Amino acid sequence: MATGLDKLQHIVVLMMENRSFDHMLGSLTAVNPKIDGVTPDLSNPDANGNPVKAQPLAEFQAQLQPDPDHHFPAVDLQIFGGDTSPTRVANMQGFVKSYFNQQRDLKHSQKIMYYFAQKDLPVLTTLALEFAVFNRWFASIPGPTICNRAFAHYGTSFGRVDMNLLYINEPFKSIYNRLIDATPKHTSKLYYYDTASSTMEITNLLQHQPELFGTYPQFLDDCAKGNLPDYSFVEPNYSDHETDSGEETANDQHPDHNVQHGEIFIASIYQAIKNSPLWPNTALLIVYDEHGGIYDHVVPPACPKDQFTASANDTGTGMPFAFDRLGVRVPAILVSPWIQKGTIVDRVFDHASIPATVTKFFLGDYSPRSPRETSADVFIEPNSGTVDPARNLLSLTTMRTDCPEFDV
Amino acid sequence: MTLIHVPRPPKSAYDPNRPVSALLKAQIDYLHHAARRLPLRYRSEIYVNAIKTEGEAARYIREVTQAIQDAHADAAAARIKAVPKRRKVIEIAAVADEGAERKRPSKKRAKKSSGKARRKK
Fold it and tell me: What backbone phi and psi angles, to 5 degrees, belong to A142?
């Protein structure tokens, strides 16, 4: 019998900034114990060894100053608790210690354990409960933004674990180039918020192929007119700035930007798709690039190596990194009117799953792709061949009419 | 269908004087790198090392992003302008060919030098 997967024609990815799963969605365990969030037993030792509990005391702004460290050495400390021995085991016990290192303020360092109450995030928590929430979506690297976002665009960071300039090495093409170069040709667009926010990380594409880019108003217009490309990647506003039409406030949710502005932005993207004639044919993935140094309790699993290795000098830990472990867990939600309400996905994903899914769905077999991408799981099954019903998240045979509405 | 209220944050959330984050610094570096490849007339006069706040970062990012878009748009327009010129040359050549064919004195001579061969010259 035909399912929603047969109707799917458009995939949209919205990538937000720097929040962990427990921080944003951890409260939902109280609503549905199958959601792997915060439980009363979770804690981290502070600099004196005293346990600090995870508490629902997160605030929208002005709480996480300075920006929690999430560069490679700090994340290594957060995951391994400061153990640098060859036999070390990941335990997620170094978050408070890591935040303490930035200001040497014992009380302030406890805030890294705070998470949002469900009522504080009506958009994200509603979407998580109404559609499919991923219990095991991890950042691709235990490191910062740039290299993690690279995995969403290329399926690799070309050996980088830091924020430095990313040099794109052949033969791995961006997902956008794969689509537009294909025969038959597919369509793809990156929508940045506005020119003052621009695109993060993929400046090389902007430099050589600006026609691949659009703005947030264009995204809204494309939704309204039913003109969305096959694949869209949406970026939030990364800064507070003036425009000709007034003030624009950052909505990327990167600390110390106001989290509520991000909620409004997520709701506006959802509503634009929901009110579009393409709603029955579109799936929206909402995901965060990395955890931003904020506490999460799930140990990132090992994964197959990439073909690159970051040197001990590049990682800053005294140890090389073969890209054989995922980063800290982040919120990820898949939205479509063909998804059963309350779906919880326990399979492991990371940002390499984005180009992997889009490639397999639109292009089928494709080569070359990075070892990390070829081993990444897909969150939407390819629309050709036999589909395993247990893996098909767009499994409903009748489209839902009970999806929520937000007043944005 | 449930209508869910989304709370609006206070006006005080807006602060363009907030110091730039490491993320924005990286974005500025990337765009600076891209801007250096632009023709001189498109380059920003903002000194990147003097950028300290989000508002200043946004001004620079807007200038460079717009410059990249403009440089590509101008290059595309220049390419379009160049196309009719070439067409004109072809038309003239075609007319010349037609004229030559009209003057064709004999079948024997026409066989020796075809229009194609003349165009190659």
Answer: -75, 70
DSSP type of residue A243: E
Task: Tell me which CATH homologous superfamily contains domain A4-43+117-375.
Answer: Alkaline Phosphatase, subunit A (3.40.720.10)
Concatenated DSSP letters for A89-122? ---S--HHHHHHHHH--HHHHGGGGB---GGG-H
Q: How close A41 gets to chain B, by Cα (Å)?
A: 31
Number of domains in chain B: 1
pTM score, two decimals? Answer: 0.91
Q: Residue B52: inside a domain, yes or no?
A: yes
Domains of chain A: which residue ranges? 4-43+117-375
Measured CA to CA in angstroms, residue A153 lies from A64, A176, B77, B104 at distances of 29, 8, 29, 62
A256 interfaces chain B, CB cutoff of 8 Å: yes
What is the distance between the alpha carbons of residues A23 and A294, in angstroms, rounded to a whole number? 7
Strand partners, A284: A12, A335
**ipTM score here?**
0.93
Distance CA A251, CA A267 (A): 11
- Residues 32-51, chain B: which have Cβ within 8 Å of A? 33-34, 37
Give the pLDDT confidence score for residue B113 in this predicted structure.
41
